[in-house]
Amino acid sequence: MPLQNTSSEGFIKEVFTSIQGEGKYVGALQLFVRLSGCSIGCKGCDTDYSFSDSFDLDGISVLSNPITAEKLSYIIYDHIKPNSIHSISITGGEPLLQKDFLKELIFYLKGYGYRIFLETSGFFIDRLNEVGDMVDIISLDFKLGESFGVEFSLDEIGKIKDEIKDKIYVKIVLKDSFDFVVGRKILDGLALLGKTEFYLHFFDNCIKTNKIIMNYFYSNGVDVFYVPQLHKLLEIK
Ligand code: SF4
């Protein structure tokens, strides 16, 4: 793809190749593009989304921030070809906070033929509705107050455009306790998306309470898949 002048610049935290550790596509080989910045403030967040003046590309080069979407996509294509990975996971932080840059980056990466996988906290639905048409797969968190100190909103979930619902799978990370009021809310959120399944993780990868939780969802017509966080088991990024 020829280089052209572009306007959007973004801040990247890191770019690396690894195995998807969560959700429906666990085990897939992806190139992760981690964008800087997040305003959600989850308690216990262990993701480094800080802004810096440079970022690492797969341990082979260091690039300067900010960077244009066009330049980054060109460098990525030079580094790894679309047919050698499952997809590019655009993650954060919260990637939707750099929406204009994100849209441009997706535009160029799609032009090179990559499948685009977007990971989002689910707190910026208006922005998700703008970007969702451009991507192939959306990993959407239902964050719960008990686990994160912030909680997803049914009103917001209800605003998601029908056209992008099919691209979404829902992921939930729980601590080892469970509140059936929250369980009801999860069921309502899934119903708003037309989903009858979701992917369940536990903070500490424990299994001692998951059968009770899983029984609850199956008995309410929802398939729940417990997936240990593979990247933590493998001690990789
Ligand atoms: S949304 Fe993700 S990156 Fe942002 S504070 Fe929460 S866990 Fe951390």
TrEMBL record:
Gene3D superfamilies: Aldolase class I (3.20.20.70). Its cofactor is Mg(2+); [4Fe-4S] cluster; S-adenosyl-L-methionine. It catalyses: 6-carboxy-5,6,7,8-tetrahydropterin + H(+) = 7-carboxy-7-carbaguanine + NH4(+). Its EC number is 4.3.99.3. Binds 1 [4Fe-4S] cluster. The cluster is coordinated with 3 cysteines and an exchangeable S-adenosyl-L-methionine. Pathway: Purine metabolism; 7-cyano-7-deazaguanine biosynthesis. Substrate binds at I19, Q20, G21, R34, T91. Belongs to the radical SAM superfamily. 7-carboxy-7-deazaguanine synthase family. Catalyzes the complex heterocyclic radical-mediated conversion of 6-carboxy-5,6,7,8-tetrahydropterin (CPH4) to 7-carboxy-7-deazaguanine (CDG), a step common to the biosynthetic pathways of all 7-deazapurine-containing compounds. This is 7-carboxy-7-deazaguanine synthase. It comes from Calditerrivibrio nitroreducens.
